[in-house]
Amino acid sequence: MKILKKDKVTSFKRSVDAGTEEQRAAVKSIIADVKQRGDEAIRHYTEKFDGIHLDSLKVDKDEIKQAYNQIDADLVTILKEAAENIRDFHAKQKSTSWFDTQADGTILGQKITPIDAAGVYVPGGTAAYPSSVFMNVIPAQVAGVERIAMMTPPGPNGEVPAGVLVAADILGIDEIYKVGGAQAVAGLAYGTETISPVDKIVGPGNVFVALAKREVFGDVAIDMIAGPSEIAVLADESAEAQQVAADLLSQAEHDARSSSVLVTTSGTLAEAVHSAVEQQLQTLPREEIARKSIEDYGAIIVCDTMNEAEDVINLIAPEHLEVVTGSPFEQLAKIKHAGAIFLGKYSSEPIGDYFAGPNHVLPTNGTARFSSPLNVDDFVKKSSVISYSQQAWEQNHKKIARFARLEGLEAHARAVEARKENK
Predict the structure, then answer these.
(1) Which of 2, 171, 286, 314 could bridge 253 with an S-S bond, Cβ 3.0-4.6 Å?
(2) Containing domain of residue 409, as a range?
């Protein structure tokens, strides 16, 4: 890993993968085809890209039952406990409608209503991500979304990974389609003979999924266009080098474009972590990916003071931030920009990925400066409520009409004044 001084740091933003012209053109073509041919187009692309012929797009109940035979009973218990933790955390985020009655009889307020239908994309194929099921579905359920449809690509055998099906069943999700890629996004956005359209699409995917979400945005809502994962560790001399190195590599193994950064006030720790990363890389199953990530986007930044270190963290605005210092809550007060913050030596990043409760769908690539983790509010709409009283109208209608005429909108002014004729 590169060891840098603070004055050499600008940011660790990586170029957004906007795809090639060929990829963008392919995605547009797929979406147009699904809009026109529906299920037939989805079957065609599933066979073309996944090598699977689908008699039925939808996962049936027997497949869900069979999935439990492939999962250890103790693991099912762990999944249920994780789901409960995640639900408990998100339940605390739920907002309620409110109304305020003023002295003149006017009632102003805000009505909160869940969206009708959400689509969840869960990556799959050769890997299984039950955690993605939990993190995307549970906040929608807590928000009160009535219909949740899940898309996930089939594996080489034409089946959805057992862990994904069990996770969905634990949450009571039975609308599951064995479809991935841009065709899945198009099906959710515009509907087919089998799939009813949704109002919002959430969940991570490959470049074709990301491009498709970007393309359908506006016709439906989306959560975000997530980039490669990243972690920053803020540490002082109290941190243990082997633990910090393990935490940095926990993100480096995700993707060759992942970013892992240590920011520390200890030169001794910096050298020790540098050595520990190299040592641990040599026994890592995904060494090639992790090494490329560390070489291209990894760094150790040595600062003279903790204030400087905190400034660097706010500049990076990392997706995941671990604070491994003697007094992590002191640093918490000064951290402004981070997707998720893990405090203390026992709060390693994977705890948040799977079990603790907070959402692991987080803003990446510096967007934590203005974005939040996926949460319950992402699945609701807020409507303003206005009930003006006669007294309030009499006090204010002339002011409002003058305001409207200032903007040259005579019909607006007349609409307010028209109430005079009905008194």
Answers:
(1) 286
(2) 389-422
